[in-house]
């Protein structure tokens, strides 16, 4: 404790050479800026994760039941009946997803077909993500209506209209293939292009097409089969508890996925970008800490007379060395605390007042500013990194100042 008290007094006291004060101030500011950047970057990535999750909620349910083996649930109706008995489940519906070929005149495009049941717009927010045309399930004459993601609509250069007829093709699952008539190897369905939707996620916007469930089953020769059962829960539920209860009910026959697990690849990329950027900022922080080492070296020279006085009063060499170790620790910790405080203040200001805007066409963006969310776990992580860095700097300072302090013997 004595070494820390002396180190703190040295840090506050005026130096005989102003350059030492300036370098010490630069060291603290450098650590503070690097720490602030770490807090801001982690908070921004948290904000983008929340944004991606909110966008995916338009099409992805809170929970989804998928086969543990294979890709098809043979009797979806019985699975739905069992799922509805779980407390907290409000509704459950079957959906079918499969690769298909979309044809619009001469344009042909592979797409991901998702068959959705009647009334799907009352369960999900699909109606809110339509950016052109309108959501519809079928025309008055019974012709099925389909919705294209913005990427698919752009690639086939089609616009939603009752006059825009598209064709869907899927290879036959049953029967023999006639090489002389390749077209007979596919099942097809005609549909009206009703609307364009966008969720601002490449996994969905690039190639997804929404079709009525009956059309999807017709193309795939399905009766009651489904590739997933989407679960919609009651307001303010305990998602984890409901998931565990459903999983316990079905045991190992099916897997119950949360919304994050349904789009695991997309969120994994966000997480990878977040932590790679964080590691880069740690390297920048390490470079900034070289200023701390320079400060300690100059301070050892600056306080040489004081060290002689302490040595004459009986202070052991170890105490004198510990003073500079404590000095390096204090400079790093003070800069880190200031950086964390500044990062939190700026993050909250951005969250409340949307100070920094996103560049680009405002009308084409889902959100016009950088989203942020401060997490306590991130702050603890940054604080832990700063503490570890402070210890490393303390050890390095002992090696650097050992030659100077050894002359006090």
Task: Write a concise synopsis of the structure shown.
The protein is α+β, with helices and mostly antiparallel strands.
If you had to describe this structure to a student in words, what would you say it looks like?
This protein has 14 helices and 10 strands. The longest helix has 39 residues, at 18-56. Strands 2-3-8-5-7-6 form a 6-stranded mixed barrel. Helix 2 (18-56) packs antiparallel against helix 10 and helix 2 runs antiparallel to helix 14. The chain is 52% helix and 18% strand. It has 409 residues and is α+β, with helices and mostly antiparallel strands. It starts with a helix and ends with a helix.
Fold blueprint:
Blueprint lengths: L1 H11 L5 H39 L6 E5 L8 H9 L4 E16 L2 E10 L3 H4 L6 E4 L11 E5 H7 L8 E7 L14 E12 L4 H4 L2 E5 H8 L7 E6 L5 H12 L3 E5 H4 L1 H25 L1 H13 L1 H9 L4 H37 L22 H31 L3
Parallel strand pairs: 3-8, 5-7
Antiparallel strand pairs: 1-9, 1-10, 2-3, 2-6, 2-9, 4-7, 5-8, 6-7
N-to-C CA distance? 22 Å
The low-confidence parts are none
Structural class: alpha+beta
Strand order of the largest sheet: 2-3-8-5-7-6
Return the string of H and E elements: HHEHEEHEEHEEHEHEHEHHHHHH
The counted number of beta strands is: 10
Q: What is the mean predicted local confidence, pLDDT?
A: 86
Q: How would you sum up the major sheet? A: 6 strands, mixed, barrel
**Number of H/I helices:** 14
Portion in helices: 40-55%
Taken as a percent bin, the fraction of beta residues is: 15-25%
What general form does the structure show? elongated
* Computed CA radius of gyration, to the nearest angstrom: 32 Å
């Amino acid at each position: 404790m004595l070494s820390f008290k002396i180190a703190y007094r040295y840090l506050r006291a005026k130096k005989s050479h102003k350059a030492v004060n300036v370098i010490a101030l630069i060291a603290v500011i450098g650590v503070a800026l690097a720490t602030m950047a770490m807090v801001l970057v982690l908070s921004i990535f948290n904000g983008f994760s929340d944004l991606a999750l909110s966008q995916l909620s338009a099409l992805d349910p809170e929970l989804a039941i998928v086969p543990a083996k294979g890709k098809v649930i043979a009797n979806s109706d019985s699975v739905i009946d069992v799922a509805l008995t779980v407390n907290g489940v409000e509704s459950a519906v079957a959906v079918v997803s499969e690769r298909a070929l979309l044809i619009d005149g001469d344009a042909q495009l592979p797409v991901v077909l998702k068959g959705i049941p009647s009334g799907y717009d009352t369960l999900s927010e699909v109606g809110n993500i339509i950016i052109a045309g309108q959501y519809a399930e079928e025309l008055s004459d019974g012709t099925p209506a389909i919705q294209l993601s913005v990427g698919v609509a752009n690639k086939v250069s089609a616009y939603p209209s009752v006059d825009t007829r598209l064709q869907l093709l899927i290879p036959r699952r049953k029967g023999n293939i006639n090489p002389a008539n390749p077209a007979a190897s596919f099942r097809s369905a005609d549909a009206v292009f009703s609307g364009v939707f966008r969720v601002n996620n490449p996994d969905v916007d690039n190639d997804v097409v929404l079709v009525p469930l009956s059309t999807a089953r017709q193309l795939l020769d399905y009766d009651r089969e489904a590739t997933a059962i989407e679960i919609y829960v009651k307001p303010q539920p305990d998602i984890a508890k409901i998931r565990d209860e459903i999983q316990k009910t079905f045991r190992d026959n099916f897997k119950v996925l949360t919304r994050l697990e349904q789009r695991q690849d997309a969120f994994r990329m966000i997480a990878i970008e977040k932590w790679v950027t964080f590691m880069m900022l740690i390297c920048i922080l390490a470079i900034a800490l070289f200023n701390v080492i320079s400060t300690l070296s100059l301070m050892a020279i600056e306080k040489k007379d004081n060290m002689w006085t302490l040595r004459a009063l009986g202070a052991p060499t170890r105490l004198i060395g510990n003073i500079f170790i404590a000095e390096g620790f204090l400079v790093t910790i003070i800069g880190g605390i200031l950086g964390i405080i500044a990062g939190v203040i700026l993050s909250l200001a951005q969250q409340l007042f949307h100070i920094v805007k996103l560049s680009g066409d405002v009308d084409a963006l889902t959100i016009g500013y950088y989203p942020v969310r401060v997490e306590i776990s991130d702050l603890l992580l940054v604080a832990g990194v700063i503490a570890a860095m402070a210890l490393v700097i303390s050890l390095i300072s002992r090696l650097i100042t050992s030659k100077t302090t050894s002359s006090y013997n």
